[in-house]
Amino acid sequence: MTLNKGDIVVLDYTLRLADTGEVITTTSEEEAKKAGIYKEGEKYEPVIVVVGEGSLLPGLEEAVVEMKEGEEKEIEIPPSKAYGERDPAKVKVYSLREFKKAGVKNVYPGMVVRIGNELGIVRSVDGGRVRVDFNNPYAGKTIKARVKVIKIVKEPKDKVEYLIKRRLPEAEMKYEDGAVTITLPLKYILADNIQAVKVVLADEIFKWVPEVKEVKFVEPIKRPEGEPEGEQESEGTQS
């Protein structure tokens, strides 16, 4: 069964460089620890992906759309369908003086720098010249991927549930006759970026679940436990 654009899949995967076996990224905590890339506080869990959204490497998505629920496979992804081919035009040379004027006193190979809106890696510093590479660090590399399709989600109500879970995992959802009501806990209501998240989530639901006609957010604030409902009248008066 081929998956269609807009279908939702839950995936486990690990990406490695084909030539060295170095793990680039993984959804598995065990794999992260084994590879020495585990980061405390980072979530390692299956990811929720919308087919056609563009969040996966093109070669990985091509494989996933042909897979069945519960299926696991290993694939090899060429550079053109992974992080792209290396582009010599993205390697640029700057004067060391420019960095010093910007307040950067110590420039060294391997240093990550931002120039304009681009991130690059300093490849060499020689004779007052700094060579910066703006290619993706994995450009030109063949990638090996191990991927497992844990779940395929196609029903409108289930798709809405997983889209919400991806953005606001602790929110509650009610789906009825094309109307979605999302109830937010206090921690989300107080979050600085909650308005932006609500707009993005509503847009995603409308885009990927055409059956939905309305999205409503409910932000209840409950009385703290133990707080009295009103002031108690005094039992006596003083003269």
TrEMBL record:
It is found in: Cytoplasm. Pfam families: FKBP26_C, FKBP26_IF, FKBP_C. GO terms for cellular component: cytoplasm. Residues 227-239 have a biased composition (Acidic residues). Belongs to the FKBP-type PPIase family. Its EC number is 5.2.1.8. This is Peptidyl-prolyl cis-trans isomerase. PROSITE patterns: FKBP_PPIASE (PS50059). Residues 220-239 are annotated as: Disordered. Residues 6-86 form the PPIase FKBP-type domain. GO terms for biological process: protein refolding. Keywords: Chaperone, Cytoplasm, Isomerase, Rotamase. GO terms for molecular function: peptidyl-prolyl cis-trans isomerase activity. It catalyses: [protein]-peptidylproline (omega=180) = [protein]-peptidylproline (omega=0).
